[in-house]
Amino acid sequence: MEYSLERGDGAIIVRVCGRVDESSWEAFGAGLSEAIEQARDGGTSNLVIDLGALDYMSSRGLRALTVAKRQADEGGIAISLASPNEVMREILAISRYDKLFTIIEIEVKP
Amino acid sequence: MLVRFWGTRGSLPVAPTAGTIRQKIVAALLSARTFTNASEAGDFVDRELGFAAGATYGGATPCVELEAGDGAYILCDMGSGLRAFGLDSMRRNGEGHRKTYNFFLSHLHWDHIMGFPFFVPAFDPTATIRIHAAHPDAETALRRQQEEISFPVPFDWLRANIEFVQLNPGESYEIDGVRVETARQQHSHVSYGYRFTDVDGRTVIYSTDSEHKPDNMEDEATFIQFFHEADLVICDTMYSLADSVSMKEDWGHSSNLVAIDLCHEAKAKCLALFHHEPTYEDEDIQRMHEESIRYEELTRNGPPLTVICAYDGLEVRL
């Protein structure tokens, strides 16, 4: 799993690629925490997690999202999940996490 | 080793209503054609109707029997499913079965002990009943539910030879031909999982009423080790993952996705979904089972994990 952070239009964007599972959930969680700190320090109230390059996420990754959401909620930051692939859409539906998170589509950079 | 499920529902026993049965029959009739005999009709039910349409997951609370070891009975928990087991064991005793019952209690909440006042062998002066628990107050809990305010037959009227045996997590016990280990789990008043291994090395895990919280994921290594290469893992899969981290957080239960991930990491062979939510109809449980199978496929990174769904009456031979 690799991730990167960048500042977009009114949001901090975390791009995740690979997969988030038992070997990478801690790094994923740390990355989300860092992004939330950046959003708070920069006065940004939106965090977008771009899943476009993510193969899949196990329950460890999903629960790391929950931990991040709790931290974000305390800082008044809204988290959206962007552009999940078909596998991730299924996982979000099976886990019912599509009821907990806003899912959006974002444009892919050329 | 044979595992027989006598009760698979969590929290509260449930039963289908007249309306629910009528719906099943109507749906089956709409799917049916003409049959020449009961066997053909039975094949149609088994192969062409889904499990929810042609059967039921049942509604008795947890009670799981293991046929293993030296011929004594081995039971996990004393939910309402214990009543039917007790009557069946009287029949087997009449055929020469040894009248020794080893119980292993996950915890003392009422859905896991409510069957004991209706356990007929407890009235047999020639029966031996050993109640194993890591809780030091197991006897208190069983006596309390048979005090007069709650039940007309006091605990002291039971005629069987009843012993309470304290188990400790981290220790290994040889009990009537089966090695037994127990591990602490997160639940109100604590719960304990069990690992049973027979002389052939076949292993069953009983891990119910165990919550795996998002802020304790680093502690899951303990469960992965406890579940290691088990032939069958019976796991609490009561809630969706979303429910388990939101409205049902701290209710002491787990989800199908966490159970599958733990089993994948532990290289277990088969997972039985268990402790079904009492408000779920059979269709809801079937859907949860189908989704669990799909999630296992999507996230598999090694040998496949067979995912079955426990129901009252299911037998699994290992």
What do you see in this structure?
The complex is a heterodimer of chains A (about 110) and B (about 325). Chain A is α/β, with parallel strands linked by helices. Chain A contains 3 helices and 5 strands. Chain A has one domain: Transcription Regulator spoIIAA. Chain A has helices at about 25-40, 60-75, 85-95; strands at about 1-5, 10-20, 45-55, 80, 100-105. In chain A, strands 1-2-3-4-5 form a 5-stranded mixed β-sheet. In chain A, strand 2 (about 10-20), helix 1 and strand 3 form a beta-alpha-beta unit. In chain A, helix 1 packs parallel to helix 2 (about 60-75). The two termini of chain A are about 20 Å apart. Chain B is of the alpha/beta class and about 325 residues long. Chain B has 9 helices and 14 strands. The longest helix of chain B is centred in the C-terminal third of the chain and has 18 residues, at about 280-300. Chain B is globular, with a radius of gyration of 20 Å. The mean pLDDT of chain B is about 95. Classes of the chains: A alpha/beta (about 110), B alpha/beta (about 325). The interface of A and B includes residues 21, 26, 59, 94 and 100 of A.
Task: Tell me briefly what this model is.
Chain A is of the alpha/beta class and 110 residues long. Chain A is built from three helices and five strands, in the order E-E-H-E-H-E-H-E.
